[in-house]
Every structure is written in structure tokens, then in C-alpha cells.
Please model this.
Amino acid sequence: MLSIRKQRILQILWILLALVMIIHSSTSIFSIQPESSQICSITGCSSNTYSKHELQTLGLSLAEINLYTHILMLLFLITCLGLSALLMWKVAHERMAYYTAFTLVAFGGTAFSKIDTFFTSSIWATGIIAIACAGQILFFLFFYLFPDGKYVPHWTRYPGIINIPLLIIYYIEIYVPVIYHTGAIPPWLHTGLLTVITSWSILLFSSIIFAQIYRYRHKSDLLQRRQTILVMLSLLSTLFVYLAITAIRPTIIAHVQGLLLFDVTATTIMTICLLSIPITIGIAILHNQLWELNPLLNRSIVYSTLSILIISIYILVVGTLSTLFQSSNNLLISLIATGCIAILLQPLRNFIQQMINRLMYGERDNPQIVLSRLGQQLEAALSTSTMPQTIVDTVTQALKLPYAALQISYRDKQATVASYGNSQAYQEGQLLHLPLIAQNETVGELILATRRPNETFTEADKRLLKDFAYQAGLAVQAVRLSADLQRSREQLILAREEERRRIRRDLHDGLAPTLAALALGASTIGDVITIQPALAIDMAKELNQNLLDAIGDIRRLVYDLRPPTLDELGLLAAIHEYIQQQTQTSRGTNIDASIQLPEQLPTLPAALEVAIFRIIQEAFMNILRHAQASHCLLQLTYDEHTGIHLHIRDDGIGLQEQHRIGVGLLSMRERASELGGTCTIANTAAGGTSITIQLPLTNEH
Model:
């Protein structure tokens, strides 16, 4: 933000500069000599002697044509002045607006005039040359700074700085010998300097284009991107027209009559193109609601690059053949060069189009490459935890997307596990939700933002995303399975540690004090047996009972680890025995239990046998304590494809609506889940509770 005082100073300086440019351009018109054989146009000042036939055909004199071209230049200056004045009026507080305003005035008033032919005063001419040089410097720096006034990337300031002394040397070499009547520099030095300036100009324009593309892709917001597209479209179009005119003009000089008409036409077309640069700059800065111009920008870059390559190939072929055959202006050489261009035109265009499409839209036209890269990166991932971010990075890089996120579904919930970009810049309706499916199950969702707001994905994008989602779904399923496995391992470790803690607590708090008391009692018996035999006998009986209780505690601990009846009787007989014991010894309950078991079961893992037996224990204890049932059914079946099926049903009061899952029910679910099975607990239609357990068997089992 500029202070009011600084704004006033800058405005006064701008007015003075504008007056100087108006005087300069006006004087250039009045300085035209009727007998002049030189025409100064946008394409440069030509001293060719045009034929009288051409002048008669056009019905104009050289002075009138010169007047026409200078009026076009004056029109260019007036446009630059008007837009720069508008910028200072509308955006008076912005530094970039003042920079642009001074650039437009200095460049627009001096860029295309032949300075040394209009002035006899060396002081005035020197001032105009200084302004012209400053205008060129500001003009090139403008495209490094536009639209936010910062060098992006930071190294782009160095080409702009290097360009300053080169332009100063160029202006000194061109104008000082003429204005001050000093001797011209040696031809070899002039040629060398011109070669350096030409080569540097190519590098400079290339760095400007790169800087704007880099800014567009990595740093710009929506408005800045639209500003960049609009201005770069006009710059590239002007560059394309200039290269075309420069390439065609030598051919017309050598072979075609009508150079005068060509120069006048080229000047008119070039002026229109040049007018588009300040106009688009003004629109970009003053107008926020710009239309979408990506297709036009794409084509402009393609054909500008193609034109540069074609001209370079033509010059290379003609120059090489002319040197080899010691011939110039040879029609055969021109035909050979034209044939080479005709052969290379379509392949070059396709290649450039692919490169530009890849730069602007990513690799949407090469789905095989994208999918192959995804597979390679997933294969190279160190763990499944890095796969989600790999998926997100791959899709954003392949399609040049500003935002992407991956959500994984687990137990009816979705969690974002990887993302790229800032989601706050987009509303929900601007995001594409792409479901990820594996084995007919939605395992996650890929959330994507289009390259620009209010844009939609093309059919090519959708085809690529469809194939990408299939591969990503399989990877996400692997991530989910790995997470499930990790959780199972953690639960097993927690269960093992909890079991060890319980055993330690039982041994330390129960059995250890009991054994210590028994040792103390045995010692006391030894002390009193000779003095009080009767007391010693009573103490021995008490000690024997305590020993029996300790043995019972040890057996209980062993039974909790694994019921001995499973090893002694087998699973089916152990279930029968347990149900019979409970129905016979339960107090206050009169329950009839129906047991339906298969005749035999295959050899089951020890963990599976224990889980089945414990689930039955928990279920039957709940029925006895809480169900108030008179009958229950226990049904166990086996299927070689689906595994073990356990069904327990009672005719009790069922689960209450506001019931809280207790330790028993939770324990049954955890045991089933640990083995990869399911546990369903629900009320029956006739009343009572139904428990259904399914436990899978692996191929080994």
C-alpha cells in the first residue's frame, strides 16, 4: 500500500512522462519528409526502394504510407496511455498498478519508432533513448512480476537483472554513433553483439514463459490464474504473428513483387496484435470476472512453439544447403526446406500437443502409464500405511489436480487417511466423490477437485479415473485387511497380557498367602505336637482342609486357562457334560435344555475349541441368571465351506430396549471376532433371545 504523498509524486511523474511521449510521437509524424524513401513500421525501418508500379497500384506516396504507420504507432501509445491512466485511477493504492502504468507509457511511446531520425537535439534524443531503454527493461521485468509483483520462482530475478546491462549496451551501440556522430564499432563486434542479444532474447522469452507456467501451476489462486491466461494468450499470439512476418518477409523480398503492400499489411496486423497486450493487461488487473481461456492458451502455446521450430528448421536447412552448394536465393533449396517442413509438420505438432497437454492436464491421455506407475509405487511402498498417500500423490500428479483426499470405510464410518492440497478452498458441490470398490464392497472413497473451480472433468479424465479407482480399490482393501490384522494382533497381545495379569493376581493375592499360611501352620504344629497333642491334631486337620482348598484354587486356575474336559472328553462330550451339570446344580431355576450336536467334528484348533466352549458357557450363564427362561436350545453344526455354526435360543424375557451390553455378551463377540467370525445377538419374534455365532475354518483346518 502506498501513502497519499507517494501516490501524488508518482502521478506527477507519470503525467510528465506521458507528455514527453506524446510530444515524441507527434513530432515523429511531422518530421516525415515527402521525399523520404524509408518506411518505419512495426517490423522495422526499411530503406528499400519500392517500385513506382506498387505505389501507383496503392495510389499512395511513401510519405502517406509513413504517415499511416506512424498513426498506428500513435494509436498504440494512446491505448497505452488510456489504460495506464485508468490503472492509476482505479487501483491507485497498489504498487503493481503504478509499475504497469509507467511500463505501458514508456514502452508504448518508444518501442517502434526510429528515434534518431526525428530529432536534431542530441540532449532530447538521449532522453528519449533512455526512456526507450527503461521501457524495454520494465516491459520484460513485468512478465516476471505479473500478476502479484513477486518473482516466482525466486531465481527469475537474475535473468531480469542480466537483461538490464545487455539492453543498455544494445541501445548505446545502435544510437550513440548516429546521434553524436561518433565512429561506428567494428563490424565483427556489431555482429557478435547482435548474436549475443538475439540468443539472450530467446533465453529471456523462454524463462518468462517458464516463470508464468510455474506460477500458474504452483503459486497462483483462481483469479491470478485467469489473469495469467489472458495476458499470456495475447503475448504468445503477438509473438506468433511476429515470427510469421519475420519468416515470410525475406521470401517476398527475394521472389515476390509486392513488398510495400506486405509491409503495410504486416504493420496493420502487428499493431492489432500489439494492442491486445496492454488491453489484456488492463482487463486482467481491472476485471475480476474473466472467462475460461485454457483451450485458447493451449493452442496458442502449441502453434507458437511449432512456428519457432518450423522457422528454425527452415533456416537451418536453407543455411546448411546454401553453404554446401555455395548458392543463395536458390528455388530448389527453398523447395527442399519446404519439403522437410511438410514431412515434419504433423509429427512435430502431435509431439508438441502431447507435451503441452501433459503440462496443462497431466497424463490423462496415457492411462496405461498412470496405472503402471501406481502399481510400481504401491509395490515399492515400504508398508501398507504409506499406500493411501501414494494413491493420492499419483492421481494429483497424473491429472495436475489441486486437491485430493482418500477416505477408508471401516465399521460404517469413514476416515480421511491421506490428502493433498487444501480442502477449505472448495465447497462440497465442487468436489467429485469417486467410490472405491473391491469384491463388490465399497471400501473407500476418493475425493477430487477439478483443476479449476466451476470446471468439470472431461470424458478422458473420467475414463482414467474409472480405471484408477479399480486399482486403488484393491490397494485400499489391502490396507483395510492389514489394519484388521494389526488390530487383531493388538487384541491378542492385550488379551494375553490381561490373562497373565489375572493369573499373577490370582497367584499373588490368593494362592501365595494361602501357601504362606499353610507353611506357618505346619511350623506351629511341630512346635505344639509334644506339648499339646490334641491341639496339634486339630491344627493338622485344619491344615489338611486348607491344602485341599489350595489344590482347588490351582485346579480353577488351570481350568480357566483351558478346561481339562476338552482334553479328556473332547469338545462335544464336554458341552454335554457342562449343560447337564448346570441344569442339575442350578438353584432356583427349572430349565429344560435341548442339545443338537453333530456326531463328530473334524480336528479343530485348540483356540477354536476353547472359544466355542467359552461362548457356550457365557451364553448359558446369561440364560440361567437373567433370561427367566423355561427352555433353551443349543445347536451346533459344521459345514466344510462356511465353518462352525452355533445357535443358542431361549424363551425368556429377551433383551430390554435400553439394555446395556454386559461383560458376557461383549466377551462372546470378542472371541468370535478374534477368530474372524461373527456374533449376532437379537430378540426372537416369539420372545426370548437368539445368539448366532459363525466361525470360519481355514483350508489347513
